[in-house]
Amino acid sequence: MYSKIIIASALDQGFGPKAIETAKKLMSKGGEIIALHVIQPTNEVVQSFVTEEAKSKARETIKEMMADRLRDEQSIEPVILTGHPGSEIPAYAKKVGADCIIVGSHKPGLQDFFLGSTSSRVVRHAECAVHVLR
What is the CATH number of the domain that holds 80? Predict the structure, then answer.
């Protein structure tokens, strides 16, 4: 059983009922669940065309989406970070002392065979247990 669990998910995949239910089953009594979304910045060329106002609006939209997805789960804390998910998720887990990360997997495309998927990067770099959902 785990005392601090991070559910790491892209909002296009959502914090699905399966991930939340798995976290609840793995959590020890009195434990904590954090729903984490990492905003991956666009490349530098695109960044030069994106205003600070647009970035702020996008972040607010993400906050609203997370709140909507977690509306029935008041005990789950939503957290939004910016960076590369494959490195930010394990770093955040270490920072907050999480003892388990739940991350979804997907059927890899050709790009994933060369670069590796987010879930495989999390598995390689996390210093805590990682539960990969399929």
Answer: 3.40.50.620
